[in-house]
Structure formats: C-alpha cells, structure tokens
C-alpha cells in the first residue's frame, strides 16, 4: 500500500476539499428539499438547486481558500516543497470547483425532470406562504445580482461560466486572505480584509455595469482577478515560515 508521500499531493488536497464540499452540498440539498416540500404543500415554487446554492457555494469556496494555508502548508513535514503544496492546492481547487458545479447542475436537471412545477431558474420570486400568511418564508433575498447571467433558461453555458468564474474569484481571494493572516498575523491581516472587500466590490461592479455588451469581457476580467490573487498568494507562500 503506497505511503502518504508516494501518492500525488493533488489527490490528497482534493480529497480534503471534496469531503468538505460533500458535507456542504449535502447540507444545502437537505435544506432545499425541505423548502421544496413546503412549496409543494402550498402550491408554489422556488428557485432550483443551482440558484439556491450560488451565494453559499461562493462563500464555501472563499472559506475553503482561507483554510488552505493552515491545513496544507504543514504537509511540508512529509517532504513536499512550498511550490508543490501551492500548485497542488491550485489544481485541487479547480477540480473541486468543477466537481461541485457538476453535482449542482445534475441535481438541478433532476429536479426539473421530477418536479418541474416546483422549481424556477432564479430565486427572484421564491416566497412560500399559505393563504392566511401565517406561514411566510421569503427566499428571494438569495437571488443574485447576477441573476440574468445565472438564468440558465437563457443559456446553460453562460450560467456555468459565470458560476465557475465566481467560484474562482471568491476562492483565490480567500486563499490570499488566509495566506496574509498566516504570514503576518491578525493586525496586518486587516489589510488583506480590505483587499478582499475591494476585490469583491470590483467583481460585483464588473458583472453589474452596463459597459459590457457580452459576458466575454466580464468573464475574462473575473479570471484575471483570480490569477492576480493566486499569484499574490504565491508571493507570500514561497518563503513563508511554515508552522509545523
């Protein structure tokens, strides 16, 4: 049986991230099924699993990015270099993003096949209430400002591209934030919080502005933000003192 160091590091890191994502997706699926049951009971409908999980998936990947330095840099004790740990984390993060989106899309398609009358492409009108309004659950706040680009009734390709670009931005900003705290501590870490917030505002502006006529440029700019964040994280990681 191969030892820890004989197995590709990317598989180890992906194993961690995939297990985290399964717990997250499982929790979200149970929550969504409960809301679907309530919607069916009161003859209403809500957004399908994809729009229901858009915000929370970006937040999950953001938090996962923050934890990467703390969980995986100590792998240096097994003989891995900082570069190996960093590149493996990047590869595993991309695999996790693709896998999570694939699972979400499959569940969404199954919902449209099984209970098409209960699911919509967005969360815009996701309100569950009975005739007396003694039950009132408003989920419309989960609707993303990117709802037009995420409305897969227009284009599945566009939706998946926007979803993937969003995950990359949030995840790599989380990685940069986590690396900033790991290297400099909580005082200077506040600077990285400011950088993260500024990056999020820039990302939202890119997708909400009317300056771009197609999604191509916003997508490219989103990927560029991700690459800059990842490169900045590498500059912090490459000679950081690792806490074993």
From TrEMBL:
Record keywords: Membrane, Transmembrane, Transmembrane helix
Superkingdom: Bacteria
Chain ranges passing through the membrane: 21-40, 52-73, 94-114, 156-177, 184-206, 212-237
Protein name: MFS family permease
